[in-house]
Amino acid sequence: MLIVFIGPPGAGKGTQCRRLVEQLKIPHLSTGEMLRAVKRQESALSRWIASYIDAGKLAPDHLVMRIVAQKLQSDECKRGALFDGFPRTIVQAQLLDDFLVEHRTPLDIALELKVDEQILIDRLLKRAEIDGRADDNYETIRERLKVFHEQTSPLIQYYAKQGKLASINGMQSEEDVFGEIQAAIAKHHRQ
Length: 191
Ligand code: ADP
Hints:
Layout: E1 2-6, H1 13-24, E2 28-30, H2 31-40, H3 44-53, H4 61-72, E3 81-84, H5 90-102, E4 109-114, H6 117-131, H7 138-152, H8 154-161, E5 165-169, H9 174-190
Parallel strand pairs: 1-3, 1-4, 2-3, 4-5
Bound molecules: adenosine-5'-diphosphate.
Adenosine-5'-diphosphate (ADP) binds next to helix 2 and helix 3.
């Protein structure tokens, strides 16, 4: 079972992914978490990655794909994986497709979580107070939303063309969002 989760920052991907992995028993691969883990190390690579994350810009496609490919080949991902925040560009989606074709493991579904912009900003500013994530400040939030619209939203068409897209309204209660996600997965998995 391979699932891609697409949604702007603050859409609730992380929360829904935690529920899904518990139910599906597949690992949660958040490239944001993976990159933050590298950023915490003291190295030239970590400083380089920090320069992207802290500015709200995307890390280079091939670097991210290399990190993801390593994970996908590990035993942990034998039963599949749930991608959170990956792919984030058309190039990443193509690199992932190439990898999956080579390993004969097609993607099951791309879930899109839709939330209005003002709600996203409010949620992220609130999260900033709770988690204290360095990139949850107003300037960086605006940049991340811009990056989403420019670089990530074209993926919605990309997966729609493959017949793999399911769009979910992310402005309902957590339970209702999860219910819609489960229904979408059940439908696509049967196909
Ligand atoms: P959010 O979706 O709230 O912005 P993430 O944890 O998914 O949070 O990502 C945080 C940051 O990590 C991004 O702004 C970007 O700098 C970097 N990042 C995460 N995933 C990717 C990716 N697939 N490609 C490039 N950069 C990424």
